[in-house]
Amino acid sequence: MTVRYITTPIYYLNGEPHLGHVYTTIAGDVLARYWRLAGAEVKFLTGTDEHGQKVAQAAEVAGESPKEYTDKLSKLFLEMTKKIKASQDVFMRTTETRHHEAAQALWKKLEDAGQIYKSTYAGWYAVRDEAYYDEGEIVEGKAPTGAPVEWMEESSYFFRLSAWERPLLDYYEANPQAIAPVGRRNEVLSFIKGGLRDLSISRTKFTWGVPILSDPEHVMYVWIDALTNYITALGYSKVEGEAFQTFWPEVIHLMGKDILRFHAVYWPAFLMAAGLRPPKRIFAHGWWTHDGEKMSKSLGNVVDPFKLIDTFGLDSVRYFLMREIPFGQDGDYSDAAMIQRINSDLANDLGNLVQRVLSFIYKNAEAQIPHPDQLLGEDREMLAKAAHLHDILRDDMEAQALQVYCQHIWEVIGDANRYVDAQKPWSLKKSENPQDQIRMKTVLYVLTEVIRHVAIYIQPLMPDAASRILDQLNQEDRSFEALKIPLKSGVSLMEPQPIFPRVESDK
Ligand code: ME8
Fold first, then answer.
1. For residue 293, what pLDDT band results from cuts at 50, 70 and 90?
2. In sequence order, which residues have a C-beta less than 8 Å from that of residue 438 and are 6 or more positions away?
3. Taking CB atoms and a 6 Å cutoff, what residues make up the pocket around ligand 1?
4. pTM for this entry
5. Strand ranges (E), 213-362
6. Are 6 and 52 in contact (CB under 8 A)?
């Protein structure tokens, strides 16, 4: 049985959800939906990161208690997942009791294994990044990320990260697929090779965090708390728990490149130190900018995903985000690029194919899936292209090559449009020759079968549009397995409705 555990970062509750959050969550959702349709056992996790100084400060600015504030904001993130139709199995909040218990259990494991000691931290800290920085990393008084830093001295527990330099390098050498894309992997390796210092993992300056049971003056550093959510969701600390046994370490951690270091250095080290296996796959995607500029509240150019969905529709937004840039690279959002994709890929290529074929059948072929007669070479070739998608798309998904997944489907859509133009079912219809009427039905059958394949494979990307096409085709079984059985003739079609209207650029 194929098993896939897919995670997004849990998002900080210091503001409303934005395009970046929506991006990672949709990518995770596309993977989760794909693997479910492929028959795998899937768990898809997302949620909110609710502790730490950054969230506590945001609550203070809002004039609310951290509890009130996080309850309110977490709801917005949960609503966001509904709005984008994310199909998470678990929405984790780090303020939940089960999560406190899991984080404390992991802490105890590390403590018992001699991986934690008490000392004093003296160094730089950036609240915006919730990260410690060495003197050598400070650039013109700021963190390398541009975040303001403050000098901090406090009593702190440390994790013996330095002891895990070699084991981490060995692990990544033996498992070259563990970090993707490859450029990011190299960055992580050179960071580790540069030398790892022990990591401060507790704070005493504030109380909004998971308490350390053996020393209640301390709360956990928000990153050790947050990363643990990935196993809380599997029922840790009850390691014998079924979910943990099933899903760990068969995980794909998705995240933006900004937080790769936490996932690829600290997290596997914590796990190995606690006697648990490191994650199988860590995928860092790129960064979205808006009209060429970094999105930021102060520039006032943050793309509001809710507005985008209200303007262009959910399916179009989901498709655009997956199709526009190679997963793993940076990209730029602009309304013009969105409109261009909708009009060319969705309205012209896919929308027209479906609309012209299904309306033609509805009007000229008894509104039911036609019976094919003898298949010619070009028919077989067309059908084979659709059938090959099965293996090709699986490889794409194994590699999290989400853009390539779209491209491969659209190649078949392009072939199908060329096939319609070449076979000209409308001319066959007008012909007096009864052989041409038979040939027309074969051509329409082939096209309907290709459309069924396409509709089934776009379900992870555009669940609503796919389902409307499959409704029109009157298909019940929508799993990939269903494609192993040839399309049945004689099934009545529903009256075709346009699926992807064109968008005018004044939107
Ligand atoms: O880092 N482009 O939370 P966060 C693409 N709580 N993706 C973007 C983006 C952009 N412009 N902006 C944000 C945290 N993201 C921690 C994570 S996990 C144990 C703890 C996405 O609210 C991207 O996935 O700052 C990035 O990694 C994440 O939002 C950061 O969300």
1. confident
2. 373
3. 9-12, 20-21, 23-24, 49, 226-227, 255-256, 258-259, 287-288, 295
4. 0.97
5. 219-220, 251-256, 281-285, 288-290, 293-294, 331-333
6. no
